[in-house]
Amino acid sequence: MGAVVGTLTMQTKQRRPSRDKTDDELEMTMVCHRPEGLDQLEAQTNFSKQELQILYRGFKNECPSGVVNEETFKHIYAQFFPHGDASMYAHYLFNAFDTTNNGSIKFKDFVMGLSILLRGTLREKLEWTFHLYDINRDGYINREEMTEIVRAIYDMMGKYTYPALKGDVPQQHVDAFFQKMDKNKDGVVTLEEFIIACQQDENMMRSMQLFENVM
């Protein structure tokens, strides 16, 4: 998108040499992303057209351009965790929403992910969570990735973390995770191992149901 806009701007300069740099910069700031049609998004998500309109108004209020970059996403997310450092967890969350890996989240990206988290089937929610934890996108969760996620969660919760973060606490959580999830003891957790173990965990099942009645 940036290359296309840049090319169009260069062509405009060539046709209208009287325009100065300020005019061109103003034109660039007015280029806003427009989302997919509501009918199309309604068909692709589990939201009604009215719900999509409400979500879009909120999205545009926070991001007038219609596109969120990682720094903006981190800033918004940090407001929910004022007593901790949410930047690293927000980084992983941003990557989970940025399904095209282009460094930005459009309204469609946002609402597709939200649809899964709020209205998706149990398997869809677990698959989304697995991909959040699978940082390098190789189809497995390894110990290094899980350690990074656990540390990011502790950093995000800050002083409200219990028990207080000590040197071995993240490793204890990782060990417990792999003890429960890694059934064949090969050092990595597959999607199927993750889903089966989560379905057998009452706490995980309750957490999957938390947001079902948000909207």
Describe this structure in words.
- The structure is a single chain.
- The longest helix is centred in the last third of the chain and has 15 residues, at 143-157.
- The protein has three domains: 1-31; 36-118, EF-hand (Recoverin, domain 1), CATH 1.10.238; 121-215, EF-hand (Recoverin, domain 1, Orthogonal Bundle).
- The chain has 215 residues and is mainly α.
- The relative contact order is 0.09.
- It has helices at 2-15, 21-29, 38-44, 49-62, 70-78, 87-97, 107-119, 122-133, 143-157, 169-181, 191-199, 202-209; strands at 67-69, 104-106, 141-142, 188-189.
- The model is unreliable at 1-32 (pLDDT under 50).
- Strands 1-2 form a two-stranded antiparallel ribbon. Strands 3-4 form a two-stranded antiparallel ribbon.
- The two termini are 33 Å apart.
- Helix 6 (87-97) crosses helix 9 (143-157) and helix 9 crosses helix 10 (169-181).
- It holds the Pfam family EF-hand_8.
- Residues 85-120, 121-156, 169-204 form the EF-hand domain.
- One of its GO terms (cellular component) is voltage-gated potassium channel complex.
- Keywords: Calcium, Cell membrane, Ion channel, Ion transport, Membrane, Metal-binding, Potassium, Potassium channel, Potassium transport, Repeat, Transport, Voltage-gated channel.
Tell me briefly what this model is:
The chain has about 220 residues and is mainly α. The chain is built from twelve helices and four strands, in the order ααααβααβααβααβαα.
Mean pLDDT: 80
Binned strand content: under 5%
What is the third-level CATH name, the topology of the largest domain? Answer: Recoverin, domain 1
- Report the total helices: 12
Number of discrete domains: 3
- The CATH superfamily label of the largest domain reads EF-hand
Poorly predicted parts: 1-32
Could you spell the SSE succession in H and E letters? HHHHEHHEHHEHHEHH
* Class based on secondary structure composition and strand pairing: mainly alpha
CATH class of the largest domain reads Mainly Alpha
* Rounded radius of gyration (Å): 21 Å
Region (Disordered): 1-22
GO molecular function, one term: potassium channel activity
Domain EF-hand: 85-120, 121-156, 169-204
Family: Belongs to the recoverin family.
